[in-house]
Specification:
By secondary structure, this protein is an alpha+beta fold. It has twelve helices and 19 strands.
């Protein structure tokens, strides 16, 4: 004798109805399980953290440093703009003085000697014959010595004079030294020393210029645009080129266009400066509820946050949280209010991870976007609106419900 559920083989209609009921109950059970699973999910998938999580990141650890969350206000924007203006060649390096002609190792010297008549030392090199010798004795004698290179020890060797220390001395000082050596063997000698090739006071020009190389500096006081012109000029579009000057351990960059517009930035260069022309070195990355998630290159002259937002097609109306617009940046602490930096642990390179928050529900936020300059490698992130996850959850439940109704209708009697 069998127990439990029995199929009524004698009544096919009753059996079909019983099977249909089981199908409906199974469909509802599956729907309930899916609903329960979805209800247990805290997120249905997202392109980044919600706005609340970012605001709560204040003081969180990143690479040993403490994250700071800063609301963008007119005061903050003004402070950032003021520090950005200070990052110029004129402020960082000053105009400088022309390079004095100091002889160094590797320099090539041109030495000329004049001897008053009668020429005792150099007169003997005149043409033979009485008339020629009379002329030589009546006139001052000029003699050009062979060009000499200062050796690695800073010494130069000259005929009739011997070895002299030249490195670290000016041509005028070397002239006096040579004249002193010639007294007693030449008649009232006068000496002229010229620097034919300068190997010790140079700047290196590299990057996006027509000719990379070393350019000598002279007492004329070559300026930045002078050496760029000698290098053939920049090889890319002016508005997309920036110039970087490296002096000792200090590195400062400026847009080429800004240097041309502001004569104060056309500073005099110093020996061993490195001038680098860079083509379009700046970009930011846009993520979250924006029109296009991508990395965007921008001009060396810079762009504002409002321009950056325009380049990614703005916010997604159906997703974006207008109170959740953020810019992630590894910031120089000197650009921030000391109260923000106080007590914060910095990264090994001295920077501070900062998240700037802009509230676009306030009309003033749109004006602030126009004064906030984007930096290289910034990340622009827009979080989802609070109701987006709920809306997606309801949409999924609706799709399940319609699918269940379709299945039920398909197996219902009479279909």
């Amino acid at each position: 004798m069998m127990t439990g559920t029995r199929m009524n083989f004698d009544n096919p209609v009753a059996s079909a109805a019983h099977a249909t009921g089981r199908t409906r109950r199974s469909g509802f059970a599956i729907a309930l399980l899916l609903a329960a699973a979805l209800a247990g999910c805290t997120s249905l998938g997202s392109s980044g953290p919600p706005a609340g999580a970012i605001r709560d990141a204040q003081g969180a650890d990143f690479a040993g440093a403490e994250i700071r969350v800063v609301d963008l206000s007119p005061e903050v924007a003004q402070g950032l703009s003021a520090t950005a203006r200070s990052e110029t060649f004129a402020r960082a390096f000053g105009d400088g003085e022309p390079v004095g002609t100091v002889i160094g190792a590797g320099d090539v010297l041109d030495v000329s000697v004049w001897e008053a008549p009668p020429a005792a030392l150099f007169g003997m090199f005149g043409q033979p014959g009485g008339a020629a010798m009379a002329n030589d004795m009546a006139l001052a004698k000029e003699t050009d010595l062979p060009q000499q290179m200062v050796d690695a020890d800073g010494i130069v060797s000259l005929p009739f004079i011997g070895r002299l220390r030249a490195a670290g001395r000016t041509p005028r000082q070397l002239e006096n030294d040579i004249a002193a050596r010639l007294r007693g063997i030449a008649n009232q000698p006068q000496v002229s020393v010229g620097l034919m090739r300068n190997a010790s006071a140079n700047v290196n020009v590299v990057g996006k210029v027509v000719t990379n190389g070393r350019i000598p500096l002279t007492p004329r006081g070559e300026r930045l645009l002078d050496v760029i012109a000698v290098a053939g000029g920049v090889s890319e579009r002016l508005e997309r080129t920036s110039i970087q000057i490296t002096r000792d351990d200090q590195v400062v960059s400026m847009p080429m266009e800004a240097i041309v517009r502001d004569p104060r930035q056309n500073i005099r260069l110093q020996p061993d400066d490195v001038v680098t022309a860079l083509y379009q070195p700046y970009s930011f990355t846009a993520l979250g509820a924006v029109g296009a998630q991508l990395e965007v290159d921008f001009e060396a002259t810079g762009i504002t946050l409002s321009q950056a937002m325009g380049r990614v097609s703005g916010l997604q109306d159906a997703r974006a949280n207008v109170k959740g617009v953020f810019v992630f940046r590894l910031e120089d602490p000197s650009r921030l209010d000391p109260a923000v930096v106080a007590g914060a642990r910095l990264m090994p390179d001295g920077r501070l991870p900062v998240i700037y928050r802009i509230d676009l529900s306030d009309p003033r936020g749109v004006f602030l976007m126009q004064s906030f300059q984007m930096h290289n490698r910034d990340v622009l992130y827009v979080s989802n609106a609070p109701g987006v996850d709920l809306q997606r959850f309801v949409t999924i439940l609706s799709q399940i419900a319609f699918s269940l109704i379709g299945i039920t209708n398909a197996v219902a009697p009479g279909n």
